[in-house]
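Feature request, filed as a ticket because there's no other form

It would be nice if the structure record came with a short human-readable summary line next to the tokens. Right now we just get the raw output. Example of a typical job, pasted below so the devs can see what we mean:
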Amino acid sequence: MGVKGRAGLMRNALKLYVLAILLPLLLFAAWLCSLTVREHYERTVEDGWSLLRVTRNSVLTNASLVENLLDMLAYDADVQRLLSNGNMSDYERVILQIYDVRATLSTAATYLKDLDGSITLFSANDRMPESFWYALHMDRIEDAADFAAFQDSGSTSAWVGLAPLHPQSTVLRSEDNMDAYTYYRWVMEGTRRIGALKCGVSPEQLFSPVRMNAGDAALYVARDGAAILQTGDGALPDYDAAQSGQRVERVGRRLLLVCPLDGLGADLLLELDYGAILFRGWLNGLPQLMILLLSSAFLFWMIRRYLRAIQVRLDEAVVIGERAKAGQMDIAFPKLRNDEISQLVGAFNVLLGRLQAQAQQQIANERAQRRILQLALQYQMNPHFLFNTLNWLQMSVEMGVDKETLSDGIVLLGKLLRYNLNSDAYSILREELESTNNYVRLMNMCKRGSICFEMDLQGIDAGERIIRFLFQPLCENAIQHGMIPQRPLTIRLRGWREGSDLCFAVENDGKPVDPDAIPRLLDGHGAIHSGRGVGLSNIAARIDLLYARGSGISIRVEDGWTRVLLRLCINGGDDGVAASADR
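Raw output as currently delivered:
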């Protein structure tokens, strides 16, 4: 080949480099920089959601303490006897109020010490002797706005927002009557309302996790478009308070993460500087852009310097190159001579070896990550279950529940925790059913025997291997979100075979699921934040991970029953969930 031919080959190679490498590389650099900005934005938002979730769970834990205490007081025998129309003399009623009911309310108030809480009892019975601030007639609050909001809710219990701690008619000095975040609960005798309990807690203490977790972030607790509590000196952002659910709103240069505080009628907001997030993202992507540009310039210089030398030796590696082009990765270029080309050949051989080693390492890493994901999905448990169970055990001890019942409850809790700590992603069906039954029995103790649990398995061997915690989260959702006050709940677990597939249905006759919410529960959106679908998204993720194609989960509401249908395809199947609901 002559000099002219070699020069033409070099010019063509340089043109090809500019068109095929340099220009796409510049476009890739710009895309990579924008991707870095997006990743920084998503990472910042996800960190914000993590902060909001931790804060929200802490606030709801404080609220659960108030709710559980008033639930206990509403069923206290002394409180029921005082408020009912029994055949007691006025003297007996005074003695009961002073020595028993007052002590009960005082004991309950000690649990609210950290929340600066105060409990007031209101009676519909005109004969009840009235005490200042802790036991009053119902007519003291009949005209109060917070009590009217509670009645309008139509619920047995409700948070009604900020309101005076004591009725205005009993307050001698207005400075003693601070605004508290208020919770009401009816005291019932059968279906008749015989009184009401009111608990007012300090907003600063109820929402104290907001200040504890905020750090330098701007956090707000808002209700009806007004800030109840905030960190920093800024004003509450103008967000859409009428919209429900967890969401992201952008207001000018400000980015708002809005997380509802379920049951409290308030929203938890995190304010981020949208412009600062984008600027920081571009700064993070700038080094990558510079590295790509410098690499391009260096590569251009190297190509121009070594092109002639490489061109002379290309024919010597044509055969090996054709084999590599055909996809044979278990090859190596021979070391021809002791020169630059041979060094390049040696480096290529090292690169092939590293690629083979990296491929093996990637396979091992994917297996380890799959195992970690299995355990992470398996170990998702509702922290409120453990808290409420321990709280029930504590209250049971204080209320003098017999030792046999307490012992059974502790044994059941221990079995559940022991079953959860097993590191195997699978379990025997018999053990899974036993664990589910133990959970329902424990919850039945806490709910005072208002849950009926039935199991019916047809043609399924109890020794079948299935994934752990397949049924308990579904029973937990039925109990937590399906129970209707003053009405027993029936839960049925049915199982059958369809060919080689295992099919299960967990159904309950409680409060039905809103059909419009089913798609959000199944695709995972809203479930993590609403607290109603964590078990569903967990089960769906593990079924997708551990079972063949065609497995899955679906929800149906028919004839007053909410049915969660599961299909486990052992040997594969058609797309979608086709579990029969007519069995």
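Something like this underneath would help us a lot:
Residues 1-6, 525-533, 573-583 have pLDDT under 50 and may be disordered.
The first strand starts at residue 118 and ends at 123.
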